Amino acid sequence: MKAALMYGPGDIRVEEIEKPACPEGGFLLKVMAIGLCGSDIRNLTTDSRKGDYPHIYGHEIVGVIEEVSPGMTEHKKGDRVYVYPVDHCLKCEECRSGHSENCSNAGDYTSRQGGFADYVPVTKEQVERDSVFLIPDEVSFESASLGEPLSSVYACQDNINVGFGDTIVIIGAGPIGCFHAQLAKLRGAKKVIMIEINDSRLEMAKQFGVDETVNSTMEDPIEAVRRMTGGKGADKVISANPSTQAQAQSIFMARKGGIIVFFGGTAKGAMTELDTNYIHYNNLWIYGHFGASSIQVQKSFELAISEDFPTEKFITHILPLEEINKGIELTRSGEAVKVVLLPNQ
After folding, report:
1. Which of 37, 91, 144, 197 is deepest in the core (most CB within 10 A)?
2. 113: nearest Cα among 29, 41, 25
3. 2-146+309-342 CATH pick, 3.90.180.10, 3.40.718.10, 3.40.50.300, 1.10.260.40
4. What is the pLDDT of residues 60-107, one digit of tens each?
5. Beta strand ranges found along the chain (DSSP E)
6. Which GO terms label this protein's molecular function in UniProt (predicted)?
């Protein structure tokens, strides 16, 4: 089969390798579409595995079941499925309290073969837990692939209760920032302000419900947000980028009693300096966000494949797996909102 193997930082080669075997108790999936995620790009372009190469990444996976393990009753050959990358045990204290995103026994998808390949094995644990969802026949594989990137965005806004009348600031107009803008509008937000350093991304973001844009290289984003909110600040501020500077600035964009979410991961070891006196006296709540609970994964997938979510606006480039390096460059440059790769084209 074809697979995009990472041999080191930025060294990704599409090669012919042996097709994996169907795992006991699981199934072998023929990958029909897979999204190219920002975390994939970060992993593919840095020494993410500390020299342990080659490796196949890719976790926004949808496809058709090619082969099932003997005795399997949950799924059959030919089923169209979406596979969420993290399987939750649903038994630990975190899972039973409704926060399976913090599962103590979650499957580690980064240690398994990923989906940048013609085929990917799906384990018994993934099948028996909560990772596999059927895709309706009328839904395209490309649209279904947005279920995974939407899940964390959905969970974030669900957790902080983005809703009717809210003013939302989003820092970072990448694919995730655009998901946040669109979802905030679907949830009833009155005003969405997007902050970004790339003018072309700001222009693209307008199609996702963004009301005001700020290029933070051209004007002070804190002053801009204050001006746009009548001096009050936003109800919720979501920093969806890897910048510690953006995190430090974000607290000054929120109203008194407002909420700030650090959504984008920063470089390991990077430190953010925060004015805790300001946080204290303005009653600000700061959250870190990562992942989604089991039910939020389900709900976000249902939204992604519904007519309410404009998947066609987000997927700007559909490429064969052989052009994965082109997809990386399109995403990093800001020309693409979302790249979807087709391994079996």
Report:
1. 144
2. 29
3. 3.90.180.10
4. 999 999 999 998 899 999 999 999 999 999 999 999 999 999 999 999
5. 2-8, 11-16, 27-35, 60-68, 80-83, 119-122, 132-134, 167-171, 191-196, 212-215, 234-239, 254-262, 285-288, 315-320, 338-342
6. alcohol dehydrogenase (NAD+) activity
